[in-house]
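Aim 2 progress update. The chain analyzed this quarter is reproduced below.
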Amino acid sequence: MAYVIIGNGIASLGAIDGIRKYDRDTPIIVIGAENTAAYGKPLTSYLLAGRINPERFSMRSGDYYTGKDVTLKLATYIEKIDLETRELLTSDGTKIPYEKLLIATGGKPFVPEIKGVEGDDVYNFTAAKDAYKLIESVKSLKRAVVIGGGLIGMKAAESLYNRGVEVTVVEERDRILSLAYDDEAAGLISRRVGEAGMMVRCGVNGREIVRDKTGKLRGILLDDKSFLEADAIVLAIGVVSNVRLAEEAGLSVDKGILVDDNMFTGVDNIYAAGDVAQARDVVFDKDKVVPIWSNAYTQGYYAGRNMAGNKAAYPGTMSMSSISFFGLPTISVGEVNPDSADPDYEIYTFFDEPKQSYRRLVFKKDQLVGYVLVGDIDFAGMYTSFIKFKFKVDAQTRKRLSEGEPDVLMWPDDFFNKAWNPEIH
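Predicted structure tokens:
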């Protein structure tokens, strides 16, 4: 028997490391639907932009798997999890037994309901195969339309633009980056994008992808009746958890697979991690799916060590985005768009437009629960520590944080006492 992991992404790498720290002998089988080694999805835009080569795209070499006694089964699709026999049924009829199972199937692209969305020259942007297809065709592309003005869409658009493609981003909301950033930060980023020469259309959505009589792509008709010519359409709205296998097996599913603090699903010997798992969020204090690379690895690691018998609680998910747009660095962490009518929240902002520097801190009662930095991000790690460790913030500390002067000396004494004296509780 063996540990079996469905999914070959960053969560599976975390799980392998977690298992092998406590169990060096039991074989591990990793099953991946794609015919490629594990890669970092955030790197897809850098691959498309030509900033990294395919060798750097892969997260681990073959020696890693050999050294960890891991058997890879790539281009293998799991059709069913049989809980009674503890077997996985593949699309070709093969049965794979498991002793302990990790579901790390990640997310699948959200496909909007646009007429004509199926067909050539329409791409998703969350899989390596789509990036490679775009790279192959980019030399012949003159115009592209990217559907989605979130993080994925904006980086896809920037990557194509840097390849010399005329790009227009279409976003149905009234501004780009509406989930990860507040109005002011999104506006600053939008101005940088416009200065670079890339077009953004907000408040509209695609109605129909138009082709000529031969099937060749002509462009996209928007719901305001305007038409954008395009040689390629990129769907980059986001992802939804790929929960089909779990749902059909009878596991508890909401937005993702429900797990406890040990990443356990509640079904004997089955765990979940990564973009498919709905785990505890330390800021919102509830279970959420947070599709972030670092969270996926950490969830996988804790799932792995718990599968190996070393019980440990996952410290919790935290929403975080750290990305640059045309050279403008940004970071968004935690709760950045609270209900403005809620009296428990207090927001401090600082904006230096000439320097393109912006800071937004969100406090809830006596804690920092979120922040946005644009331009000057030097103190991001320090702000994050206040959120992660839920430090209490008095009036003086709040003032210094708001003025952009976070310091480790602001941390409470009992935190240092526990760090240096673990026996103190």
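The chain has three domains: 3-108+240-307, 122-237, 328-420. The mean pLDDT is 90. These observations will guide the mutagenesis experiments scheduled for the next reporting period.
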